[in-house]
UniProtKB/TrEMBL annotation:
The keyword ATP-binding applies. This is NB-ARC domain-containing protein. The keyword ATP-binding applies. GO terms for biological process: defense response. It comes from the Eukaryota. Residues 228-390 form the NB-ARC domain. PANTHER family: AND NB-ARC DOMAIN DISEASE RESISTANCE PROTEIN, PUTATIVE-RELATED, NB-ARC DOMAIN-CONTAINING PROTEIN-RELATED. SUPFAM superfamilies: P-loop containing nucleoside triphosphate hydrolases.
Length: 448
């Protein structure tokens, strides 16, 4: 009865006032006590053991010093057990918290996955529509809005995540599925958010301020001969081994017209270049003047310092930072050093120049393209278009007109000038005077 009652009492040691349940270490401790007393809280009155005093404090006194040391060892062992038990309880509480925060009853999770897949398919349909709109809106000097790009990237990302989540759900046990319920719900909310954000009402593209280039007016003297030369130049653009292209030919033969067509073709974006710069050089153009013209065409400024080398370094750095570039130099009369001007010779850039001189093109190490005069057929077609087809039905004017075209020597510029001056004119003497004046000017040209 004494020992059974003892199991229901808290123990207290006078020296430490420690309380511990006796069920663990009772056999080890009880033998080391000589006197067992149950006292009231005042410490004066003694009681016998009874169930009435189970809530009283029990004070134990050791029989000897050795017993006291053994009792201390037993208490230490017990405290270690208590500490271990506390650790177990902490782990248990942590596990319980994880389950409470992350586990849900997985009823209907298969249906949730099916709903998620259905909304994903709807999102992909929306993505296809957005991409079609981008194709229709994207033009030279335009770029896709950043928010649209990010939206498309998020759709691609979620398309990769949903199959992985579905695979986890299908392959998990009932208990494991409980941890995936919130993941499925969260992914479904994310898809719904993307569906809402994907309702773009405004344009999907904006102006690309970093892009440089200008569409030029289409030349009025474009005929098949000029178009063929344009195509030949474009083939060199597609060849990565060609960095410099030189177009040469006599004045008025159509060099500038062909290169203008090239400029406009490049702006369509078939071959990707970040900037396309057009500069008219002219007969007398110093290095500093050329540097200024190139910088102005790119809307940048370089140092006004007269040191050409410093200016060349700045210009070269600007062109290199722009990425892939095209520099078109029209009407070059003399050879110049790319290094002195500041034009980087690298795989990132393409240089096109037009010149009357084959020697200039060769000395600047260009891939040469020769502009040939128009064929008789092209020359007559161009003249008829400019003067007016109705005039060419006159039997009296037709022989004179053919003589004028012949004297133009296949030069598009001369043909256009003469035909434009005679447009709508049906007076035969005026046509004869025009032919005579043309012959006189040609004779003067050759005498010079």
């Amino acid at each position: 009865c004494f020992f059974v009652s003892l199991l229901n009492l808290p123990w207290h040691l006078p020296s430490s006032n420690l309380v511990f349940p006796p069920a663990f270490l009772l056999p080890k401790i009880i033998n080391h006590f000589h006197v067992l007393r149950f006292c009231s809280f005042t410490g004066k009155q003694k009681y016998q053991v009874s169930r009435y005093h189970f809530k009283k404090r029990a004070y134990f006194y050791p029989k000897s010093v050795s017993h006291f040391l053994e009792m201390g060892s037993a208490i230490k062992h017990f405290m270690e057990l208590v500490e271990q038990a506390g650790t177990v309880f902490e782990v248990a509480n942590t596990i319980r918290g994880l389950i409470e925060n992350h586990w849900e009853f997985p009823k209907g999770i298969d249906q949730n996955v099916n709903n998620l897949k259905r909304k994903r398919d709807q999102l992909n349909g929306q993505k296809e529509d957005i991409e079609s709109r981008i194709k229709s809106e994207l033009r030279p000097r335009k770029k896709v809005k950043k928010e649209v790009d990010l939206w498309i990237e998020n759709v691609k990302r979620i398309n990769g995540e949903i199959p992985n989540l579905e695979s986890k759900v299908r392959g998990s046990s009932f208990f494991s599925r409980g941890f995936l319920v919130k993941n499925v719900r969260k992914k479904e909310e994310e898809v719904e958010e993307l569906l809402e954000k994907g309702r773009f009402s405004d344009d999907l593209v904006v102006n690309d301020l970093s892009w440089i280039g200008q569409v030029l007016p289409t030349p009025s003297l474009v005929v098949e001969t000029v178009k063929r030369k344009k195509n030949e130049i474009m083939q060199h653009f597609r060849n990565d081994e060609v960095q410099k292209i030189g177009v040469y030919g006599m004045p008025g033969v159509g060099k500038t017209s062909a290169v203008t067509l090239v400029n406009n073709e490049l702006l369509k974006g078939e071959i990707e270049f970040k900037i396309i710069v057009w500069v008219t050089v002219g007969r007398k153009c110093s290095v500093i003047e050329l540097q200024n013209k190139i910088a102005k065409a790119m809307n940048v400024s370089i140092s006004e310092d007269e040191d050409e080398t410093l200016r060349a370094g700045m210009l070269s750095e600007i062109l290199s930072e722009k990425g892939r570039f095209v520099l078109i130099l029209d009407d070059v009369w003399e050879r110049f050093s790319f290094e002195k001007v500041g034009i980087p010779e690298s795989s990132k850039g393409k240089l096109v120049l037009t010149s009357r001189s084959l020697d200039v093109c060769r000395r600047m190490d260009c891939q040469v393209v020769k502009m040939e005069p128009l064929s008789n057929e092209d020359a007559w077609t161009l003249f008829s278009d400019k003067v007016g087809q109705n005039l060419m039905t006159s039997a009296d004017l037709l022989p004179i007109a053919k003589s004028i075209v012949e004297r133009c020597a296949g030069l598009p510029l001369v043909i256009v000038i003469v035909a434009s001056s005679m447009r709508g004119e049906d007076n035969l003497p005026i046509w004869r005077n025009a032919l005579a004046e043309l012959n006189r000017k040609i004779s003067e040209y050759y005498r010079c």
